[in-house]
Each structure stands twice: as structure tokens, then as C-alpha cells.
Amino acid sequence: MSLKSNENIIAQEVRTRENRDLLLLELENISFEVFQKKSTSLEDYLSGTLRMSTAKLIRTLAKDEGISLDDKEGIANLLSTLKDKLLNLKVLTLTLAFEPTEKTIDKLYDEVSKRFGPEVILDFLKDRGVAAGAIVSYAGIYTDYSLRKIVREKFESEREKLNKII
């Protein structure tokens, strides 16, 4: 099972590292409550405990893979494959001067997924020192597009002139 045909569905649910981590936690809870502790059925757990979006994702993936919610082995394999896929997503980190809104996340994610594909998610760091623009880190490459960098470079290039004035 690869879930390849459902990458876009998974990506729309995840989009950020924070969402991925929350989904991974929910998958662990399903595994524990339904398969280890056996305190509830999967359907009851999906209906009563999980976020609606997570329950919908699992139902959609199971349906698309032809797995009944009563098929414990099939669902266990589905959850395991989904966990692996989530853990293998690449993370593009953006350092911004503000905490992004959902609308901003949507726009940024749309742009990133067009350039890199659905296997890349966003992680946001907040640093007011960035002032404007962003610092981007992806696959070991760090690029500073912030106003702070522009001001620093300008100051460095004008340092001699400033020292003569002082």
C-alpha cells in the first residue's frame, strides 16, 4: 500500500509540521485505543473522539484503498503506511516576523506545493527581528530574504563612510 493516489488529500490535511505532529499523535491514539487496549471500535473512535477532519481522512483513505473499517489488519496497515508517509514529508521552514493566519498559510502552502510537490510541508518560526520578508530553510539550504539582512548589508557597505563622518 503506497497511498500515492491520495497524496493531495493527505497534503491538504497536513500542510504544516504542527498539523503533521497532531495527526501523528492521533494515529498513535487510534493504534493504542482500538488495537492494543481494544476499548472501542474504530467506527466509535472515529465518530466520537477524533477531530472531524482526521476521521474523514481515515475514512477516505480506507475507502480509496478498498479497506473496510472492520478489517483490523487492513486498517492497521493503512495507519502504519500513513505514519511512514507523514514521517517522510520534507519540511520547509519559514522564519517570519509574525504568526501567519490560515489564509497566509494557504497561500504559502499553495506556492510551495506547486514548486516542490505535496511531499513538502511548512514549519513556521517567529522572530520579530526579521522585520519584513522571510528566512527560508529547506534541505540544508538557508536563504535570508529579510529586511534585516538588507539593512545589515547596506550598513556594512557604508561603514567606512559612516566612520569618516563620526
Question: Could you walk me through the main structural features you see in this protein, from its secondary elements to its overall organization?
Answer:
The protein is an alpha+beta fold and 166 residues long. Helix content is 59%, strand content 13%. It has helices at 7-14, 17-36, 42-48, 52-64, 72-87, 102-116, 147-165; strands at residues 90-96, 120-126, 135-138, 141-144. The protein has a 4-stranded mixed beta sheet. Helix 2 (17-36) packs antiparallel against helix 5. The N and C termini lie far apart (69 Å). The mean pLDDT is 87.
Assembly category: single chain
Distance between the termini: 69 Å
Percentage of helical residues? 55-70%
Globally, the shape reads elongated
Which percent range describes the beta-strand content? Answer: 5-15%
- Mean pLDDT over the full residue set: 87
Number of helices, counting only DSSP H or I runs of 4 residues or more:
7
Arrangement of strands in the largest sheet:
2-1-3-4
- What Rg is obtained from the alpha carbons, in whole angstroms? 22 Å
How many distinct beta strands? 4
Catalogue the unreliable spans: none
Main beta sheet: 4 strands, mixed
Sheet/helix structural class = alpha+beta
What's the order of the H and E elements? Answer: HHHHHEHEEEH
